[in-house]
Amino acid sequence: MLNKAQELLLIARCIAADDRDAFGQLVIAYEAGLRRFILNLTMGDAALSDDIAQETFLKAYLAIRSFKGIASFKTWLYRIAYNEFITFKRRYVETNDIEDTPPVIGSDTVAQSDAKMDLQVCLNALNDSERTIVHLFYIEDLPIKKVCEITGYPEGTVKSYLSRARTKMAEALNH
To answer: Of 21, 39, 68, 90, which is most buried with the most CB atoms under 10 A?
Structure first.
């Protein structure tokens, strides 16, 4: 993970000299977390996650000059990814080009562990907004203010979604 100074130096190199190597370093630093975030949004669809991640990094590269530095680069990048996912969902609703049933997240060669199956059951009980907020808050370990910046929801809404999500996940586990 990059510290703030390293991050800003790489961004400055991207803006000032159109330095693709600097942007490549940013991609390497944030790629794993971003892909995990998108994979969660797409309910385990690896191909779709790869497409959204690629679009996210492409849009970030093309729009790097608009990055103001108010939020961290990670927050800005996750916001782009979230917007890309929302765009995909809108197109899906309009065209119904993909299946209605969510894919099962990758199975182990022997068998999935109980914890992995429980987590999948919990996540399937949530709607897209709740799943996104749970992932950002619990898995990415982002504070509520960063979750608000990424999703665009007010703080009270994020807290409400977290509370509702915990209740839904507990109910899903009890069944």
So the answer is: 39
Residue 11 and residue 68 in contact, taking contact as beta carbons nearer than 8 Å: no
Mean per-residue pLDDT for 78-107? 71
Q: Which ranges of 44-174 does DSSP label H, i.e. alpha helix? A: 46-62, 73-95, 114-124, 128-134, 144-151, 155-174
Q: How far apart are CA 23 and CA 10, in angstroms?
A: 7
Question: Is 90 exceeded by the pLDDT of residue 105?
Answer: no
Name the strand (E) or helix (H) holding 38. helix 20-41
Please check the confidence at residue 36 and state whether its pLDDT lies above 70. Answer: yes
Rounded Cα–Cα distance for residues 91 and 172 (Å): 29
76 vs 100: which has the higher pLDDT = 76
3 state DSSP class of 115: helix
Residues with Cβ within 8 Å of residue 73, at least 6 apart in sequence = 7, 11, 26, 30, 67
Contact assessment for residue 52 and residue 155, using Cβ atoms and an 8 Å cutoff = no
94 pLDDT band (50/70/90 cuts)? low
Instruction: Report the pLDDT averaged over residues 124-147.
Output: 90
Per-residue confidence (pLDDT) for residue 108, from 0 to 100: 47
Sign of CA dihedral 67, 134, 24, 90: negative
